[in-house]
Each structure stands twice: as structure tokens, then as C-alpha cells.
TrEMBL record:
Keywords: Ribonucleoprotein, Ribosomal protein, RNA-binding, rRNA-binding. It comes from the Bacteria. One of its GO terms (biological process) is translation. One of its GO terms (molecular function) is rRNA binding. It comes from Bauldia litoralis. The gene is rplD. Residues 45-54, 64-76 have a biased composition (Basic residues). InterPro entries: Ribosomal_uL4, Ribosomal_uL4-like, Ribosomal_uL4_dom_sf. This is Large ribosomal subunit protein uL4. The lineage of its organism: Bacteria, Pseudomonadati, Pseudomonadota, Alphaproteobacteria, Hyphomicrobiales. Belongs to the universal ribosomal protein uL4 family. One of its GO terms (cellular component) is ribonucleoprotein complex. Part of the 50S ribosomal subunit. Signal peptide: none annotated. One of the primary rRNA binding proteins, this protein initially binds near the 5'-end of the 23S rRNA. It is important during the early stages of 50S assembly. It makes multiple contacts with different domains of the 23S rRNA in the assembled 50S subunit and ribosome.
Length: 206
């Protein structure tokens, strides 16, 4: 399939061919859900922790005598039922990461790209570069393209002026091609690829 290449100023240029095996798949929600869950699970710190009764500094003396009070039988005040006592079955530090086959991860990326093409939310830029790092000027150019919530993916290296100008614009993310991932694609309304990014993706999935 062919898609028109545009510039930051909104001028249409030549067309670029998008490989069907990367951008022309029928998106599957189950695969996209699996990869997003995998990504977010890897990001979790897993440092949650509560103290158990053995870690509470509290008297271990029996609260009151076993019989004759008419009250329930109790011992150590660090027991979970007492205020200030330890937590029963509380969270422990652990890793939330789980495995996902490399082929599924690669397939999910192609499905995410195909989803943007199907929804007509993919734009191809000739290049992402500026003569000077001016956030206001770049924001005006992006507004002219109708981009208020977008992920912009460039080639192997981001152009410094563009990177500096874009970093303070809300809901605009900029990544090199090495950082492209399903979660960032799905969380933004529009995906913007430069010609260099398209070439890199084509080479990557050969």
C-alpha cells in the first residue's frame, strides 16, 4: 500500500510504499492486550511490603489470662487482629515480569502498526528536523497537521533541535526507531513515522 509523505509545514510530497506484511495485517486485540500487559508488568517496581507479626516491635506477653474473663482467647499483641499488629498475608517484594515469546512481541508490533493504518491514524513525515529548537514554532506546525496527541518515531538518532523543541509539548512523544513499542503506539491517538523510520521497520521485519 502507498501513503503520501508530508512535511512539517503540511506540504504533500511523494508517496512511500508500506509493506503489507507489516502495515496490512488484521489487528488482533488479544495479541495487543498480551504485549501491553507484558510491558506494564515489566515496569512495576514490585517493592510493595507490609510487616508481618514477627516483624512488629510489640510485647509478646499474653494480653490477659486465658480463662475467667469472658473474653476471647488472645496472646501476642502483634497478631493481625489487633490495632498496630502485623499484616496477615501482606505483599512481599517480588518481580511482576513474566515471559512472552519474541515472535509474539514482533507480531504485536506489526499488529499495532496495522491498527493505526486501518484507523487512518498514521502519518509519514519526510523528516523530523528543525533549524532551531523552538517549542512554540514546532507546536504550531504540529497543530497545522492536526496533531495534538501523537507519537513521533524517527530514525536511529533524533535530530537535536526537534528533540529539544518537542520535549515540552504535552501529549507529544518522540522516540528513535530503537524505542518503538506497542504500549506507546496504542496510548497515543496518532502515529507519525519519518521516512527513515519506515525504512528501518521494513529492514527490521525482512
Amino acid at each position: 500500500m502507498d501513503i503520501k509523505v508530508t512535511t512539517l509545514d503540511g506540504k504533500a510530497g511523494e508517496s512511500v510504499a508500506l509493506p503489507e506484511e507489516i502495515f496490512g495485517l488484521e489487528p488482533r486485540a488479544d495479541i495487543l492486550q498480551r504485549i501491553v500487559r507484558w510491558q506494564l508488568s515489566k515496569r512495576q517496581a514490585g517493592t510493595h511490603k507490609t510487616k508481618k507479626r514477627g516483624e512488629i516491635r510489640m510485647t509478646s506477653a499474653k494480653a490477659y489470662k486465658q480463662k475467667g474473663t469472658g473474653r476471647a482467647r488472645h496472646g501476642n499483641k502483634a497478631a493481625p487482629q489487633f490495632r498496630g499488629g502485623g499484616k496477615a498475608f501482606g505483599p512481599e517484594p517480588r518481580s511482576h515480569a513474566h515471559g512472552l515469546p519474541k515472535k509474539v512481541r514482533a507480531l504485536a508490533l506489526r499488529h499495532a502498526l496495522s491498527d493505526k493504518v486501518r484507523d487512518e491514524k498514521l502519518i509519514v513525515l519526510s523528516e523530523a528536523s528543525l533549524s532551531e529548537p523552538k517549542t512554540k514554532a514546532l507546536a504550531a506546525q504540529l497543530a497545522g497537521l492536526g496533531l495534538s496527541n501523537a507519537l513521533i518515531v524517527d530514525g536511529a538518532a533524533l535530530e537535536d533541535n526537534f528533540r529539544l523543541a518537542a520535549r515540552n509539548i504535552p501529549q507529544i512523544d518522540v522516540l528513535p526507531i530503537q524505542g518503538i513499542n506497542v504500549y506507546d503506539i496504542m496510548r497515543r491517538d496518532t502515529l507519525v513515522l519519518t521516512k527513515a523510520a519506515v525504512d528501518a521497520l521494513t529492514e527490521r521485519f525482512k
